[in-house]
Write a structure and sequence with these properties.
A 5-stranded mixed sheet has the order 1-2-10-7-3. It has a 3-stranded antiparallel sheet with strand order 4-14-11. The chain is built from 15 helices and 14 strands. It has one domain: Cytochrome P450 (Cytochrome p450). The protein has 390 residues and is α+β, with helices and mostly antiparallel strands. Bound molecules: protoporphyrin IX containing FE.
Length: 390
């Protein structure tokens, strides 16, 4: 089979975007021989079609490229509707905008503590010292974990985050199993002492019923584990990418610092420009033809959200940062269809507060102080961003 692009070739922070621009022009339904072979949808319209037609494009066979073989099934992402729906229903209300708003003071105080340490040392790697730590501490609060559980999860979660993004399979496996153990301990505790279902994800999952029956316990464990993974990796990468962009554009950095009221709109545009995912996948149940190319049934298809969000057919001047986009609702940063991110309100809040606090903590500006280390498939963005403050 033809190889239209090679995700295993050396990359820097910008090179995948240049390659995806080429593929959008020349070969929008691209094939790669990496990881046993997979297809990649580069255009916005094709990505939307696959994401919204869940009868034809299923996730239960392979939900991500490359396939992670050693972990168990984790709802809702690894299941198709209608099986995935009760898991989503149990957690989504706890991630709704009005529910997550109460975490803003906590997100701000965690951000201030972590950024305060960076200020004291004149900068540092924003991913290592801030963005790989903040989201997991927020997750701990959202999950109502006890202080000792939080401390353990913060440590293992951070190691897992780094292991996944650096393709360290042994460390990923080891930390993944530990995270499962911790999720099991939380479920056991909530079974013994349930919390109100409108305030606690584990209790809500335990209280859910399908045809009068509780959800299987191992699948509840898998759901908690799933939220943990998707909820910490994307924010880590996003904040790294925002820091790269603002280091390169000092004028924009200063403008946003002087106008904190723009933080919300800027967050949305950063999410479009640096969409952190390119490897969420589907498998077609029958042969499908997209953009004139036929994908045989049964082969993995990556929905390259990061490429769709820079599609010039949808976003004018798509590779530039602009605060005046009339069609931001077309952004697929959080996906579309039945698997669309239920954590988007929490993610937006974390990104906005992180941006506001980073700018407020660096009144004399920040700039790059070394090489950026990019992430690899299935994420896209920055894994290490050394910064110098002031
Ligand atoms: C910048 C941050 C984030 C981005 C860009 C992001 C993006 C996404 C995307 C694109 C999907 C769809 C996957 C697919 O189409 O297969 C997704 C799913 C999901 N996200 Fe997020 N996410 C972020 C943060 C979060 C957070 C903070 C949480 C929870 C606290 C979360 C929970 C989930 C869950 C549970 C799913 C699976 C939903 C399902 O399968 O029905 N995400 N996310």
């Amino acid at each position: 089979m033809s190889q239209d692009f090679d995700p295993l070739a050396p990359e820097d922070f910008d090179s995948p975007h240049a390659d995806y621009a080429r593929l959008r022009r020349e070969c929008p339904v691209a094939h790669s021989n990496a990881w046993g072979g997979f297809w990649a949808l580069m255009k916005h319209a094709d990505v939307i079609r696959a994401a919204t037609d869940s009868d034809t494009y299923i996730t239960s066979k392979q939900n991500v490229v490359p396939k992670v073989a050693f972990t168990g099934r984790r709802p809702p992402l690894h299941l198709d509707p209608p099986e995935h729906t009760p898991y989503r229903r149990a957690i989504s209300p706890l991630l709704a905008p009005q529910r997550v708003a109460r975490f803003e003071p906590e997100i701000r105080s965690i951000s201030r503590e972590l950024l305060g340490r960076m200020v004291a040392q004149g900068g540092g790697d924003i991913c290592e010292e801030f963005s790989s730590r903040m989201p997991i501490r927020v997750f701990n609060a959202w999950m109502n974990l006890l202080p000792e559980q939080s401390a353990q999860l913060a440590e293992v979660g951070r190691r897992y985050n780094v292991a996944v993004q650096s393709n360290d399979e042994a460390a990923t496996k080891e930390t993944s199993l530990k995270l499962y153990e911790m999720a099991r301990a939380v479920i056991a505790e909530r079974k013994a002492r349930p919390l109100p279902v409108d305030q606690d994800a584990a209790s809500s999952l335990l209280a859910a019923r399908v045809d009068g029956q509780p959800l299987p316990e191992e699948m509840i464990v898998g759901t908690i584990r799933q939220v943990l993974v998707v909820g910490i990796i994307a924010p880590t990468v996003m904040i790294g990418s925002i820091a790269v962009h603002l280091s390169r554009d000092q004028e924009l950095q200063q403008h946003l610092r002087e106008h904190p009221e723009l933080a919300e709109a800027a967050t949305e545009e950063f999410l479009r420009l640096y969409t952190p995912y390119r490897g969420f996948a589907r498998t077609a149940v029958s042969d499908v033809t997209l953009n004139g190319r036929t994908i045989p049934a049964g082969e993995p298809i990556a929905l390259v959200y990061a490429s769709a969000n820079r599609d010039e057919d949808v976003f004018e001047d798509a590779s530039s940062f602009r605060l005046d986009r009339p069609n931001m609702k077309e952004s697929v940063a959080f996906g579309r269809g039945p698997h669309m991110c239920p954590g988007a309100p929490m993610a937006r809040l974390q990104m906005r507060v992180a941006l506001e606090e980073l700018l407020a903590h660096t009144p004399r500006g920040f700039s790059l102080a070394g090489d950026i280390v990019p992430t690899r498939f299935p994420e896209i963005g920055a894994l290490r961003v050394p910064l110098k403050f002031g």
